[in-house]
Amino acid sequence: MLNDSDLPYWLALWRVPQVGPGLFKQLLQHCGDISRCFHMSADELLKLGLSEHQIAAIHGFQMGVDPLLSKGVDADLAWLQEENSHVITFEDPLYPALLKTIPSAPPLLFVKGDVGLLNWPQIAIVGSRQPTRQGLQNAKDFAKHFVREGFAVTSGLAMGVDAAAHMGAIAGNGPTIGVTAHGLDKIFPKRNRPLAAEMLNKGAWVSEFPVGVVPRPNYFPRRNRIISGLSLGVLVVEAAVKSGSLITARQAIQQNREVFAIPGSIHNPLAKGCHLMIREGAKLVEQAQDITEELLPLLSYQQKQLNLSLESVETVQLKVHSAPGYGKKTSEYQVLNVLDQDPMLVDEIVVRTGMSVADVNAALVMLEIDGAINNQQGGYTLARAS
Fold first, then answer.
1. Domain that holds residue 338
2. Helix/strand number for the chain, H first, E second
3. Where would I find the beta strands (DSSP E) of the chain?
4. Residue 367, in any domain of the structure
5. CA dihedral 292, 298, 300, 301 (to 10 degrees)
6. Does residue 105 sit within a domain?
7. Which residues of 28-38 are buried (b: 16+ CB within 10 A; e: fewer)?
8. What percent of the chain has pLDDT over 90?
9. Cα–Cα distances in angstroms (integers) from residue 94 to residues 127, 250, 319, 335, in the given order
10. pTM of the entire structure?
C-alpha cells in the first residue's frame, strides 16, 4: 500500500514533462523507492534517459524551487481531499487487474466515485459523437442489457454514443465508468456535466491526467487505450472509417480483448467503420445477448474473484508473499496471485494474468514442484497452508 509520504513523489514524477508510462516504470524499477529518484544525481538520471529539462524539474521539486510542479502537486492533493476522490498507483491492490496487463498501462489513475468498480467486469461501448437516432437507441439498449447481466458499462463520457451508453446503464440501474481525456476537476464537454454527476450515484470517472489538464486532440487516443484496457470486450455501435472509435477497437485487438460491431446500411457512412472492423475480425452482433453469452464465462470468473472473503484474500496474499524465490516480476508470482482454493483451468489463468499459454504452463510446473499449488480435477489451486 502506498505511503502518504510517497504520494507527492508519484504525482510530481507523473507531471514531469514527457514522462510517459514506459519511462515512469523504468525509473520506478530502477529506484525501488520512488522518492529516491528525486535524490539521484543529474548524471545518474541522464543515464536513465531523462533530458536536462526533466532533471531540472525533478531536482527543482525536491529542493522546493520549482513553483509550477509544486503548484500542480498541491492541486492534486487538494482535489484528493474532496469526497470520493482517489489516486491509485500501479502498485496499489485496487489498481484494475485487466488494465495492468496492457503494455502502456498508466502508472497512476485519478478516480472519482466508486474506486472498487474498476475491477468489476466491464464492456466498453464506443461510437460516433454524431450518431443516428437508431445508433443512440442501440447504445442505450445494449448498455441496459449489459448492466442487467452483471457487467459495468465503460465509455468515454463524450457526446453521442458515449453519453447514450452511460444513460442506458443508469436506466438499467447498473454501474457505469467514464474515462476522460482530461483532469477530473472539471468535466468536458459542459453539456455532459449533469450526466457525469448522475453517474457518481453508481459509477466512477477515471483519468490518467492530473488536475487542471484540459482536453487536447492527442489525449483522446491515450484515453481510448484505457477504455479498452479496462474492459473484457469493446462494442462499436456506429463509426466512420476514420474515427476515434476504430482506434479504440484496434487497441482492444492489440490488448487481446474481444471486439464486436453492429452492422448497418451500406448507405450509412457511420456503418462503414463497423463493417471495416468486421472485415478485420470483429464479431458481428445483432443483439446484446450475442455479446453477453460470449463474455459470461469471463464474467462468472471475475465475479468469483470479487466476492472472495477477506479470509481467502489474506490466505492468497500470505501464500504469494511466502512462496520461495518468487518476486513480483516473475511469472510464478503472477500465477499465484490469481489462484485460490477453487480449481482454475489453464485458460482462465491465461485470461486473468494476460500471459501466454506457454509461460503459464512453465510457471505451473515450477509452482507444483515447489509445492505451492495443487493439480485437482484438471485445474490448479493454491496449496493449503500447513
1. 308-382
2. 18, 11
3. 85-89, 108-113, 122-126, 152-155, 176-179, 203-207, 233-236, 258-261, 283-284, 373-376, 379-382
4. yes
5. -170
6. no
7. beebeebbebb
8. 62
9. 29, 27, 19, 18
10. 0.77
Task: Convert the pLDDT of each residue in 82-99 to its tens digit.
Answer: 999 999 999 898 999 999
Q: What are phi and psi of 303, to 5 degrees?
A: -65, -35
**Are residues 34 and 143 located together in one domain of the fold?**
no
Q: Which three cell numbers stand for residue 87?
A: 489516486
Task: Tell whether 268 and 192 lie within a shared domain.
Answer: yes
Q: What share of the chain is helix, strand, coil (3-state, %, to 5)?
A: 50, 10, 35
Helices 346-353 and 357-369, packing angle to 10 deg: 110
Grid cell listed for 317? 496474499
Q: Do 206 and 70 share a structural domain?
A: no
| DSSP 8-state assignment for residue 295 | H
Grid coordinates representing 39?
535524490
Q: Are residues 73 and 129 in the same domain?
A: no
Determine which helix (DSSP H) or strand (DSSP E) holds 222, and give its type and residue range.
helix 219-230
Tell me, yes or no, whether 156 lies in a domain. yes
CA–CA–CA angle 20, 245, 152 (5° rounding): 85
Which three-class secondary structure state does DSSP give residue 288?
Answer: helix
**For the segment 123-137, what is each residue's pLDDT rounded down to a tens digit?**
999 999 999 999 999
- Angle made by CA atoms 220, 226, 229, in degrees to the nearest 5: 140
Number of domains in the chain: 3
b/e per residue 91-103 (b: at least 16 CB within 10 A): eeeebbbbbebbe
Contacts 24+ apart (CB under 8 A), 316-323: 316/340, 316/382, 318/385, 319/372, 319/382, 319/383, 319/385, 323/367, 323/370, 323/372
The CB-side HSE value for 218 (13 A sphere, CA atoms) comes to 0
pLDDT at 35 over 60: yes
